[in-house]
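To whoever is covering the structure queue this week,

Two jobs came back overnight. Logging them here so there's a record in the thread.

Job A:
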Amino acid sequence: MPECTANGIRLHYEEQGNGPPLLLIMGFGAPAAFWSQEFIDRLARSFRVFAPDNRGTGASEKRDGPVEIATMADDAAALLELAGVRRAHVFGASMGGMIAQELALRHPERVDRLILGCTHPGGTLAVPATPEVVALLMPPRGTTPHDAIAGMWAAMTTEETRHQRKDFLEKMTDRLLARPTPVITLRQQMEAIARFDVAERLGQIAAPTLVLTGDRDILVLPENSRRIAARIPGARLVTIPGTAHNFMWEAQERTAQTIERFLLQDQW
């Protein structure tokens, strides 16, 4: 896995494939491994995929002190600069979608086409999940790392996935346990999410934008995607039926095909 010092912090990232550059930005508490290797492999058939570990996760540098969503957007812009990529397509999921919104606003010259998955705009425009669902992401003290990760699946996947794809979820749990995210990073990111608010700036996003959501997402409710799409000029909303927050796992091929059509076709 390559690494670079971007925006003053050491970042690790995966790079795979050929074609137009596509930056994947993962969400809360998760490294690039959370995309699943199968999903990255699928996208790498059409794109040169960059998948960084956000600061504080995976093999990237961990620091004390507060962090902002905007800071992580600056990290992403600096990584592209150091990789020699002038402009890239950007797909951000969940908190990664918040980072992607800030990236498109702060560094519009870096963003070609923008995909916002299972995310929200913050502020009063955001529709929150129930406290019970949010609590699944922050397990009580004494919970083993394995059980803490396994417990998150209830917030991120459908009941069908949890019953029918146990081997896959166990494999993803093992991947996350290989480099567990420190509690301090989880707190930093949760606080950054709470402060995030681009609701009044969405109309300034100039990149052609696709908004994706699963119709059974209980963590970031689909209404958030509808509100984002309504406020970004020309944005298109696609709802992937039968999927929850991690729709890219539950409908991998449909998600990849939708991304390819949006990013590779002049008329979509």
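Job B:
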Amino acid sequence: MNDIPEVKFDSAEILKRAREETGLSDFGDEHFMPAFEVLVEALEKEAKLNAVGRITQYQRILNSLKNRARMEEWFRRYPEIAQEDLAPPVVIVGLARTGTTMLHRILANDARFYAPLWYEVRNPSPYMDWSADQADQRLLEATEEVNALLAANPEFAAIHPMDPLGADEEIMLLEHSFYSYVPNAFAHIPSYTQFVARSDNAPAYRYLKRQLQFLQWQKKQRGETAERWLLKTPHHLHFMDLLLSVFPDAQILATHRDPVLSVPSITSMNYNLWITCSDHADKLAVAREWSLLFANGVKHTMEVRKQHSEQFFDAWFEDTVARPFEVIEKMYQFLGMPMTEQAKLAMQQHREANRREDRPVHEYTLEEYGYTDKGIRAMYKEYCETFIDSKT
């Protein structure tokens, strides 16, 4: 541990360092500043980070600022990026651990979709010497980061498949706006969690649209062409009204699973992130925070979709596991897209090469996190009555 540099979470110092390391000073829309400052203070005062946690969370914040600065410089050099037209996206949304990742990565094999890749959402802004026809430094860095995370906690491989070139969540794009629940997936920072929940997250979603324009422009520079974006993150449950405000014609693929099964799995996943960053991680604290967070999220989305029911397609975890292509065919009918033989073959090949049984089993119990069947069902009562009990 002696070779891990000591860092201090000081907002002015981190901003100064980001300017020095990039040679750039414009971080874009300054709506990020209040959230940035609350996060920095929470990590310093509340998180009880160990040495590894301090340096990794410090680097994530610094990295977000540097990506913001580079993005503004790319837009300055190439103003046509802001003219990139985004067709209505397809967005997979559901409680975490309901098959969203599996579905996202299967559908992403259809070349008609743009999908954000892990290395792109971690570092959406290329270095200023980037060239579309040369090796991308961001991919090398992403591979190193994935390897380091799995080395720090090998059990995480059983929980969530990590692939630098795999389709992944745009919540890591939202992380760059400093309005997201990514930081509290790594640490107990209640003041920041409450700040994000109570604040207007509209600037974050507007910034997400700008990031997608930038990524689309980059993909086109590499010769990639597609019709529309395929997005995915459970985070949108908390802000479905904003997602549909910024992307009013989005089509939502909503995934469902009994929260008695999904909520403890969510908790176990985040606990395994907390223990990499703190020696004081508390299973019950993780359980309280994340069960309530998502209970409020599903209530919010259920309310929003009353006014947008025609934009939602519902799929159940058990069905997507047992007969995925039957479900996907229905999804494509909802999307108004014909299923091509080329897309179906690519999806089948991906599924065969990425079978769940090839990865270790994710083991946990309700009791170790203080959960009971009755308690979870009470917290998710309306959701269970609407989407779960009618299926059993």
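Note for Job B: Residues 89-128+137-391 form a domain with the Rossmann fold fold (CATH 3.40.50.300).

Please reply-all if you pick these up so we don't duplicate work.
Q.
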